[in-house]
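[audit] Reproducing an earlier prediction to check determinism. Same input, same settings, fresh worker. If the tokens differ from the archived copy the diff job will pick it up downstream; this log only records the rerun itself.
[audit] input (160 residues):
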Amino acid sequence: MSPLQRTVLWGLGLLERYRYIKFGIVGASGTVVNLAVLHVGHEYLFNHIESGYNKPYFSLALAITLATINNFSWNRLWTWADRVKTLEAGEVQPVRMRLLALEFSQYVTASAFGSGMQYVLTLLLSGSMDYRVANVIAILAASVSNFLANDRWTFKRPKE
């Protein structure tokens, strides 16, 4: 392998790490949304339903949903802005909405495994620790699969 090839590969690796850092920053904002909604939901909105279980079933589902919307929006606008599908000249607004809906459905599908893992891990761990700490641990565990799935599918590199 030539020095130029090594340099190019090193540079590409650096860019991927940089994208993962941006993904992590977006994920941190999603974690704040997730934890805020989880707390408000469990302590106030669904308290009358969830108090008997001592587990945040409904609150957690709402928190994951809103954090997913937050993360999709910021990842689309920032993390993978260079890969967002664009309109051809002269295409109309309904086409743009279809593209957005397609990207969102791919993002949700790609994140489904991680969201499911987060949901199950949070519920399992909340039996032995505070549900908020359990949720942060579960979010960290799910983040790697979410990044890889969205990088390789939802926002995949355009074909040359």
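[audit] rerun output stored. Observation attached for the diff report: The mean pLDDT is 87.
[audit] end
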